[in-house]
Amino acid sequence: MRRPPAALRALRDGCRELAPELREIALAVDAEPHAEERLRASSALRLLRVAGTPRRHRASEVPGWASPFTDSCLARVVANVELARGDVGVLNACAAPSLAGLTVDALGDRAQQDDFYGALARDEPWTFFGMTEADHGSDATALGSRLTPDGAGGFVLHGGKRYVANAARGGIGVVFARTGPTPLAIRAVVLRRPAPGFTGAPLEMLGLRGACLGSMAFDGVQVRGEQVLGRHLPASRRGLWGANRAFGVVRMQIAAQALGAGYAIRDEVRALRPGWDGHLALSARLDAAHALLLDLAAEADADPDDRRPPSLAKLHTAALAVEVGRWAESALSPGSLVEHPLLEKWCRDVMAFEFMDGTSHMLRLAVAPDAAPRREGP
Fold first, then answer.
1. N or C: which end of the chain has fewer CB within 10 A?
2. How close are the terminal C-alpha atoms of the chain, in Å?
3. What is the pLDDT of residue 355?
4. Are 92 and 136 in contact (CB under 8 A)?
5. Can you give the residue ranges of every domain in the chain?
6. 6-121: which CATH topology?
7. Rounded to 10 degrees, what is the CA torsion of 18, 20, 25, 26?
8. DSSP notation for 177-200
9. Pairing of the two strands 172-178 and 155-165
10. Given this model, what pLDDT does residue 1 score?
11. Of the candidates 257, 259, 319, 330, the residue with the CA atom closest to the CA atom of residue 288
12. What pTM value is reported for the model?
């Protein structure tokens, strides 16, 4: 990609200056990821929460350099690479609109968008996005959560979700369930907590603990008609189409975060071994991945419905980040990860990217669906 325009260079530089503030609380968040007071006290996370909100819905002004944050996939990639070099765990602990907001952007009408972002501005809750289920994994078309008409224009929600960020602490978010047997019957609804029959519990995590993954259960949760997204859209665009739009943006962000975490590990190894040139080959691969990521982000902006650029991006950088973590272990003396807990944490964190918003196997199918192995014979 050619040199980024001035606005994106300013965004990059601003995020680069903000990144050390994330690093300052990294180990504390890893030790106590559910300690909300520390996260709410962070001026850096407050800024990122507002900057990560679409311009029309921002509750307050942000510095000029942060204004383009949500304007494009390319802007999100530029920002997330630099922020993840600070600490990717703290970055994922930010109370931002995230996947829920992107889904409301894609499927919500004007009133639903205003209501969702109004709640974020007023209450500053963490958000959640419920798609994955314990029995169905990444296969969204097989999800079992169901919406049953209540006879009064609304629905009753039954089912459960797993591996949901902010499942236990989230105050508002989006959950997918089905009203019938076909993929076109899958709908997205906006839920708020507390609500009768709606519970959440944290899962024990080894890496990326700031994301606070957990499980959710829905036992007869009442859903009003105005909570159902996509009512104004054609049937083919009321459910999974919106999810795919949101996943495309978020996968680019995750790819950027994986690359930023890889850079952070590389930088720490260089600091521990000053003057050592053993990093040069790996550094060249990181820089090449960065250039590729910017190109793929531009492609995603040109065609938001093309699943291939985000899938390629996440496939490449998630695998590279894990490789960088293993390289760090071999580049340093035995026991170095114990002596340097932040580096040890980063080597744990990068392992989580494989499972976020689509495993590598599912992404390969998105890139080359005809390349899946086929069984021969009966």
1. C
2. 49
3. 86
4. no
5. 6-121, 126-236, 240-371
6. Butyryl-Coa Dehydrogenase, subunit A; domain 1 (1.10.540)
7. 110
8. EESSSSGGGEEEEEEESS-TTEEE
9. unpaired
10. 59
11. 259
12. 0.93
Helix (H) and strand (E) counts in the chain: 14, 7
Q: Dihedrals φ, ψ of 139, to 5°?
A: -85, 90
**Residue 18 parent element (H or E):** helix 6-24
Max intra-chain CA distance, the chain? 72
User: What per-residue confidence (pLDDT) applies to 257?
Assistant: 98
Task: Supply the CATH classification number for the domain 126-236.
Answer: 2.40.110.10
Contact at 8 Å (CB) between 242 and 304? no
Q: Encoding tokens for residue 288? A: 């090449």
Using CA atoms, how far apart are residues 172 and 296, in angstroms rounded to an integer? Answer: 31
Residue 340's φ and ψ, nearest 5 degrees, are -125, 85
CA–CA distance from 199 to each of 2, 171, 285, 361 (Å)? 48, 11, 44, 31
Give me the CATH code for the 240-371 domain, please.
Answer: 1.20.140.10
Amino acid (1-letter code) at residue 260: G
- At 123-152, the pLDDT tens digits run 999 999 999 999 887 677 889 999 999 999
Q: With beta carbons less than 8 A apart as the criterion, state whether 230 and 188 touch.
A: yes
